[in-house]
Amino acid sequence: MLVEAKGRVVGFATAGLCDLPHSAVGPQSYELKRFYLLKAHQNGGIGSTLFAEVMTWLIGQNPADLWIGVWSENVGAQRFYARHGFERVGEYGFKVGSTVDHEFILRRTTGLNEANPQT
Hints:
Layout: E1 2-5, E2 8-17, E3 29-37, H1 46-60, E4 65-71, H2 75-83, E5 87-96, E6 99-109, H3 112-115
Parallel strand pairs: 3-4
Antiparallel strand pairs: 1-2, 2-3, 4-6, 5-6
């Protein structure tokens, strides 16, 4: 999903099946893989709208749980995700060029499959 302002892309989100390195990730685990918004467009509601739209899509996939990897030093994003029910359940190294960033793994159970274990 893309967000534009005045014909210019200012943010985007990608989501799909989870590939984070955690033992609880299963075949019905979905992940918010990337979620970026230019700093000049943060704190104005655009990010919340984008997040709501990608979460609607994710929930529509009938996931067992939802996952996010977030940079350990991005405290603002961690607070944002915590407000939306995500909890830290692990950590890993994410390679960015020649650097390995310390990332936190966040998870939110959806309760969808708990109510109907056949799905």
